[in-house]
Amino acid sequence: MRKVLGIVIFLITLTACNDGDLIDLSFDFEDEFTINECGQLIFYKINDAQNESLALSLSGISLESLFAFDEVLNQVQDTIIIERNINGTTNRLNYRVYNGTVTGNDLFCNPIPPANVSVRSEEDTPTGTVIITIIARDDDNDGIPAEFEDVNGNGNLFDDDSDNDGIPNFLDVDDDGDNVLTRDELTPNTLNTDPRINPLDTDGDGIPDYLDIDDDGDGALTRDEENILQDENPRNDITEPGGLPDYLNPNVSTSVPAVAFRPHAVVRTYTIKVQVNNVQFSFLNQTILDFGENVSTVTVQKFPVFN
């Protein structure tokens, strides 16, 4: 979906880097922007259809600083806000129109574009305030939305740790610590919905499997029912040929004590949003210019405490 940042199409004479010819402008860019670091931090977007670019270059900010969150977030979602003033030198917002197709970082990491690229026209806004908002959010992607993992119902997701492994349920891929992933203890109709509605409860004891340490109610802990392979995965231990895994089979209650939890990893999503206020191009005065956003993800390793 394209987002029109300014006036869609019109003709105007630009004096910077051109000979006074009329230039066809569109100023029409996608919502998403690209980030690059080459001496300066540069946010840019290119409209290939119109051979134009919009680039925001900032000094005194590193790419690393955009992701300077603690290993463990203090809230379900943490936010960093950075502000800079455009001054036309170290901090610039630049719009260019090119003759021919344009691509890539080389357009912005050098004061002079590559030899095969001709700048037909360009202009900087002399003023503006840049507001960068970086939002970090962790998610265990276990099939249960975070808002439904407040087991004690007090509104604090950080004090709900069903298996006492040091990782709250909303960041725990195995909420009950039975070495069967929470996602694998849900039915298709409860995946990514309210797990309290028709939860999978193999032994019918009123405790859903994803919070039940003995899923089949045979007296042997699910995590200990690894009679074939001791690999922290009870799902692949099937004693009865053609039968259910032992942890779901009440006819099999032999066990081998578990000694560790499965490795945990959560996905951290970084959403970077950029807004520029009080933009003044010769062809556009805009109080609030939504530059767009950039979304990236990394995997964060969690280390459950075995108990």
From TrEMBL:
<dbReference type="GO" id="GO:0005509">
    <property type="term" value="F:calcium ion binding"/>
</dbReference>
<dbReference type="InterPro" id="IPR018247">
    <property type="entry name" value="EF_Hand_1_Ca_BS"/>
</dbReference>
<feature type="region of interest" description="Disordered">
    <location>
        <begin position="184"/>
        <end position="210"/>
    </location>
</feature>
<protein>
    <submittedName>
        <fullName>Uncharacterized protein</fullName>
    </submittedName>
</protein>
<dbReference type="InterPro" id="IPR028974">
    <property type="entry name" value="TSP_type-3_rpt"/>
</dbReference>
